[in-house]
C-alpha cells in the first residue's frame, strides 16, 4: 500500500533531511487510529500541491509524532482543470458526490442551489452544510492520497454560475436530452473545463437558456440517466481519461 496522507497547515520551511511534527487532530488520528509506529512511511501535505515524504521517527503520547523528511515533492497544476458545478442533492448525497468526485480527481466543486433543488441552504444550515462538504473534500483528499485537495467554493447563484461558464475554455451542462455526447466533445488541452450537474428534477428551461447565453451547451453522458450525486463523478472520470490526465 502507498503511504497514508495527513494534512498539515504549512510546509514552507520544511527541507529533506529535517524533521516535522504532526499533532492535534491529525496527529491523534495517526497515532491512536492508524496506530503508526517508528519506521513506517507517511506523507504530510498542505493540500495545495506540496507533500513531505518521510518515515515516523518518534511517537509521543496519543496525539503526536515526529517525521524524518526524506523528500519534498510538489505537484504541477493539472491541465486542463476540471470544475463541477453541483446542484444541491437531498440528504447526505451531497457529501457522497463531493467524496467520489474528490477521489476521482476533480479540481474544484461549486455548490449550486438550482431552481428545482428540493434542498436549499439558508442561514445556519448553509454554513453547516458547506462545512460538511469542505470537510468531506479534505478527508477524501487524504484517503485518495492527493497532494492537491479540491477547492469547495461558496454557493453560487445561477447568474454567477453563468459568469463562471462564460470564462471557461470548455463549458457544458450535463443533460439527458443533450444532442451531443460528452465522450466526443472537443476538449481543450489547457485552461479550464466547467461542468454543470443539475438536480434530480433537472435543469429548468430558464437555467438552460441562461447557461446557453454563457456558451455552455447541453451534453449527455450515455443512454442511462445518472443521479445528481453520481453524474459529476462519472463525467470527471470520462474527462480525465480523454484529456490524458489519467494516462
UniProtKB/TrEMBL annotation:
Species whose genome carries this gene: Streptomyces auratus AGR0001
Localization per record: Cytoplasm
Family under the similarity heading: Belongs to the RNA methyltransferase RsmE family.
Substrates-to-products reaction catalysed: uridine(1498) in 16S rRNA + S-adenosyl-L-methionine = N(3)-methyluridine(1498) in 16S rRNA + S-adenosyl-L-homocysteine + H(+)
Domain Ribosomal RNA small subunit methyltransferase E methyltransferase: 79-239
Protein name: Ribosomal RNA small subunit methyltransferase E
Keyword annotations: Cytoplasm, Methyltransferase, rRNA processing, S-adenosyl-L-methionine, Transferase
InterPro entries per the UniProt record, alphabetical: Alpha/beta_knot_MTases, PUA-like_sf, RsmE, RsmE_MTase_dom, RsmE_PUA-like, tRNA_m1G_MTases_N
Database matches in Gene3D superfamilies: 3.40.1280.10, Hypothetical PUA domain-like, domain 1
EC number from the UniProt entry: 2.1.1.193
Entry's Gene Ontology molecular function annotations: rRNA (uridine-N3-)-methyltransferase activity
SUPFAM superfamilies given in the database record: alpha/beta knot, PUA domain-like
Keyword Transferase in annotation: yes
Function, in words: Specifically methylates the N3 position of the uracil ring of uridine 1498 (m3U1498) in 16S rRNA. Acts on the fully assembled 30S ribosomal subunit.
Segments forming domain Ribosomal RNA small subunit methyltransferase E PUA-like: 22-68
GO cellular component: cytoplasm
Amino acid at each position: 500500500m502507498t503511504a497514508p496522507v495527513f494534512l498539515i497547515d504549512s510546509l514552507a520551511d520544511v527541507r529533506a533531511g529535517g524533521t516535522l511534527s504532526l499533532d492535534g487532530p491529525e496527529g491523534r488520528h495517526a497515532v491512536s487510529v492508524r496506530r503508526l509506529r517508528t519506521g513506517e512511511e507517511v506523507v504530510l501535505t498542505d493540500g495545495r500541491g506540496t507533500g513531505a515524504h518521510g518515515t515516523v521517527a518518534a511517537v509521543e503520547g496519543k496525539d503526536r509524532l515526529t517525521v524524518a523528511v526524506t523528500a519534498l515533492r510538489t505537484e504541477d497544476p493539472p491541465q486542463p482543470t476540471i470544475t463541477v458545478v453541483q446542484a444541491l442533492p437531498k440528504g447526505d448525497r451531497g457529501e457522497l458526490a463531493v467524496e467520489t468526485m474528490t477521489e476521482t480527481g476533480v479540481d474544484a466543486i461549486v455548490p449550486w442551489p438550482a431552481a428545482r433543488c428540493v434542498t436549499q441552504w439558508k442561514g445556519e444550515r448553509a454554513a453547516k452544510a458547506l462545512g460538511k462538504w469542505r470537510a468531506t473534500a479534505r478527508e477524501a483528499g487524504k484517503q485518495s492520497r492527493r497532494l492537491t485537495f479540491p477547492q469547495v467554493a461558496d454557493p453560487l447563484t445561477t447568474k454567477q454560475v453563468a459568469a463562471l461558464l462564460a470564462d471557461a475554455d470548455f463549458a457544458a451542462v450535463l443533460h439527458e436530452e443533450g444532442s451531443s455526447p460528452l465522450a466526443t466533445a472537443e476538449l481543450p488541452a489547457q485552461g479550464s473545463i466547467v461542468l454543470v450537474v443539475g438536480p434530480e428534477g433537472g435543469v429548468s428551461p430558464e437555467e438552460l437558456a441562461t447557461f446557453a447565453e454563457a456558451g455552455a451547451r447541453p451534453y449527455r453522458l450515455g443512454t442511462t440517466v445518472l443521479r445528481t450525486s453520481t453524474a459529476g463523478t462519472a463525467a470527471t472520470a470520462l474527462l480525465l481519461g480523454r484529456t490524458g490526465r489519467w494516462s
